[in-house]
Amino acid sequence: MIGQRATLKQVSTSVIEQLRDAVAGGALKPPLDRAALVGFGVRHQLEAIEQALAGHKSAACLTVLDVSLAEREDRKPTPELVWTGPEAPAGMARDTAVVLRNLFEGARESVILGGYSFTHARDVLAPLHRSMCEHAVDARFFVHVPQVETRSAPDEYLERHLGGFLSESWPFGEPRPRIYYDKRSLIPGPPYSSLHAKCVVVDGARALVSSANFTQRAQEQNIEVGVLIDDASFATFLAGQWLRLIETGIVGEFGPARSR
Q: Is the pLDDT of residue 189 over 90?
């Protein structure tokens, strides 16, 4: 992280619990360093864990981890209802398009966006482009590609669908998000697969999970429902799910990065 000290607030509860059990049981022997954490299976938020635990003996590590877990028990984040479409006059839900704009405008480090459908999404995505320009936000999109019906040249097929997505919904030019697709979509025939998730994770701290596609109609006309979760533990865990798709090779990257 730049200009901000990493803390255990950015680490998922499940990882902290696993670390606590490993230290208590002797599977991890402090003082802990990055090599020991990676060997144990930790891949994300290594800097935060190192800063919190480096140099401590077992008892001190357990105290730090126990305090972090206790704080999470006391602090129960309240999910916030997000809604698109008509509602009763007394409705208290926030509008989907407004929430997305606020999330993108507030991004300072990273945005992970998984969406089943992107069409005419330039107005929805414009605030994200501004944040990328002004704050060097790293944006990664996981975009649905229709499954091929017959075997065809992968590069041409991806250019038709994902290149078309960029020209239609990202006309801003550089910087561009990194685009990922499900590799199974390039294999014709059943079983069929869809990248059907619809969610946004911002800075590993806030997450929006919604029924709404990233289309003008879904953001302005349909009846859609979602939940905004202001919880670093959940957001980090959700971001990790997407990043593991990259690590395991389930998704591929579209564009020049594919040749690296």
A: no
